[in-house]
Amino acid sequence: MERRRLGVVTDGTFEAGLTVRLDPGCSTEDLRIGSFVVVEGRSHRFFCTIADMRLQVTDAGLLADPPRDASPFVRRTLEGISSYATVQVKPHLMLDISKGVGEETPVEPVRTIPMHFAELYEASGVDFATVFGEERGAYFAMGTPITMELPICLRLDRFVERSNGVFGQTGTGKSFLARLLLAGIIKSKAAVNLVFDMHNEYAFGAQKEDGGWVKGLRDLFGPQVLVYSLDEAWGARRNVDVTLKVGLNQIELGDVLLLAEELELSPTAVTTAELIYARFGSDWMKRLVALDSGDSEALKGFCDLTGAQSESLKALQRRVKRVAGRDYVREEVAFSAIDEMVAALDKGRHVVLVFGRHDTPLDYMLVANIVARRVRRLYQEKVNRYERTRDEADRPQPLLITLEEAHKFLSPQVSRQTIFGTIARELRKFYVTLMVIDQRPSGIDPEVMSQLGTRVTGKLTDQRDIDSVFTGVGGRSFLRGALESLNTRQEILILGHAVPMPIILRTRQYDEGFYEAIRGRGEKGRDIGEDIADLYGD
């Protein structure tokens, strides 16, 4: 196994990582923060990432009086003798090589460090395959290392086991990352998907920033993907499967409290809503909207019945009428459409709910919360039945709910009032997990962030967002430099439950090559194993 040697270990601690002095001729410009490297110890191979670099000299006089206009010969003479470089590497995993390496030799978490003068090498293709596996089954290639053309996989079955997050500032390609992941999950059958498609990007073709077009999930997987629409006119043009309506009887108090900021509800209005809900239950919205606030007798009777103040009642009514007046809202609607959605999910079909022109935060937050709450309740019933019967036929399909603008549902102020906060904290207790997509992870409740099993993140520059992404993650000081070094486009850091160790990747292309691969064959009809390298474009 030919690998390029980079240097030798000269210092280090288990907590702080290893210091490696680079060999003469090995330039720091050939290395990248976050690169995957290997340290060969006496009995273990350590899989590491580069966390930092440092230039050093043996003679302080060189710093006080550096050579001016030095010739290449002088520079080469000084390199490795009077001047040298070190890199800080963080071991993540280790492999016992004392008895040879075979398929059954397990890769383990790091529990020790190598001795002085252990050698540092660039990682080879075998090292990558040893740690990240090869693309098959639930192993899904997300991209390639920055300096190599080797597919790096994450395990989708582990990805859907816990809630997870896709983060990055505006323009880093979060939607394309989500499409990659969703397509892989559908292909591998790791879970069924319920996607709340606020910006109409996932179901059908969408335009890229460079003007080109990419296929949606319905385009790729046909009838495996059901499309529900909130916008009747938009749905008619696209020939969607179901147009969804929302009834006043389906709107619970928590749905309105979630919209407190959007509706500009005062604390007094919130208290009034609680009084009305306590009195009328599921009919509270219908009774409130139908009230003739201009009829003093009717208003007084309503106030006496609920204990509300008249002025607060009228102010609340004005605001909730913004909800009742939406095109898709009806006075009363059965839950049958959502129940049929859950039945389809249970049969292995995937659902994308498209909002069409109803794409305001008010529409998105209201409908997503109502649908997800009903879905979770039905899944809870399925899990309870499965626990009673212990019949595999009753086991629910794992469900992944994709949620954009996640901070609106999972902020510290409202996360405990939304069904999404409950789902994020349950750790798949009822076979339902989240994929949260957001450009502002700092707006998400830290408790929720700590529960995210896998994090796929593009470039972030706000320090609060960077700190939030690493909530609950060990060794964050090493990972911070890797995240900050990312390019704005096509570079991501993946860490957590679905990968054995953190890794920086150049993301896989979402193009014709990917479409062919996801349908199960390579280009020109060849087996995908014959042309896996062709899937990665420039």
Largest sheet report: 12 strands, mixed
**Number of alpha- plus pi-helical segments:** 21
> Could you name the CATH homologous superfamily of the largest domain?
P-loop containing nucleotide triphosphate hydrolases
CATH class of the largest domain: Alpha Beta
**Percent of residues in beta strands:** 15-25%
Mean pLDDT: 89
Distance between the termini: 27 Å
Q: How many beta-strand runs?
A: 23
Radius of gyration: 28 Å
As residue ranges, the low-confidence spans are 521-538
**Mass-distribution shape:** elongated
Q: Which CATH architecture of the largest domain is right?
A: 3-Layer(aba) Sandwich
The count of domains is 3
Task: Walk me through the structure.
By secondary structure, this protein is of the alpha/beta class. Helices cover 35% and strands 23% of the residues. A twelve-stranded mixed beta sheet has the order 9-8-23-22-21-10-20-19-11-18-14-15. Strands 1-2-5-4-3-7 form a six-stranded antiparallel beta barrel. The protein has a two-stranded antiparallel sheet with strand order 12-13. Helix 14 crosses helix 15 (361-389). The longest helix is centred in the last third of the chain and has 29 residues, at 361-389. The protein is elongated and about 95 Å long.
